[in-house]
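Risk register update: the risk of archive-format incompatibility is retired. Evidence:
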Amino acid sequence: MVGSKEKLKEKRDKRLQEISLLRTIPYSDHQRWWTSETVAVVTGANRGIGFEMVRQLAGHGLTVILTSRDENVGVEAAKVLQEGGFNVDFHRLDILDSSSIQEFCKWIKEKYGFVDVLINNAGVNYNVGTNNSVEFSHMVISTNYYGTKNIIKAMIPLMRLASQGARIVNVTSRLGRLKGRHSKLENEAVRAKLIDVDSLTEETVDKTASEFLKQVEEGTWESGGWPHSFTDYSVSKMAVNAYTRVLAKELSERPEGEKINVNCFCPGWVKTAMTGYAGNISAEDGADTGVWLALLPDQAITGKFFAERREINF
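Archived output:
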């Protein structure tokens, strides 16, 4: 077991080195579909991965709007980047508050008119280490799934219609995978419903989230076949992954010139407040795939799941 863990670490470290090298290679002129007038929004960006994605996108020359639920902290975070010469703006946004979402969208429309890139990073996790409490499950599912969904729906009408396609990137986790080394989902009925992309609907995803929360209330969730570690967080990200596929399917039916591409990615176990700083990846490396997806020259990529710049299975 120790040997296999060491091999995995070695493999991961090698890939991260490759990505660090790739990050130093500038985009060529024909790859750069964006300009300084291209507008990107990153939610939950006052620290950690979100802050780093803002920094990297602004470093590539985009105009980036940093959002945060806490206004004072957000203003300070934006100021740090502004003082570094980056074109970064700030507006408060609480993805759990419909009036905050409306106010934000109104401000975007008045000040910028449109958005080209939306990165949904805002999220919560109340378990660290081996803790697996479901005490805050409603907050976790409401924020990570429903909050993400609500801001996406509000922002879609503001996304610029252009030949290169607008982009939505959802920050998620391998913990939400239906199959794979990290997945401990034992509920076969849930897996069967969520894995079949052809019959997958938003209603199915909502019902899955509701079913989990109902079992939490009834005290039966432990025998429900849900993941055994970081259960509420894993279920919330399972829902985000499934919704990414539903949305990609819907948006791909739009005519040429009106496409919006939506993908999700796992940043890895990053050294941030969310992991209790127990992660093994820097925020810079964790943010990389999200930035790479936002800037992809190929607009045909949609409805996919990525980690370390490689496609992985849902």
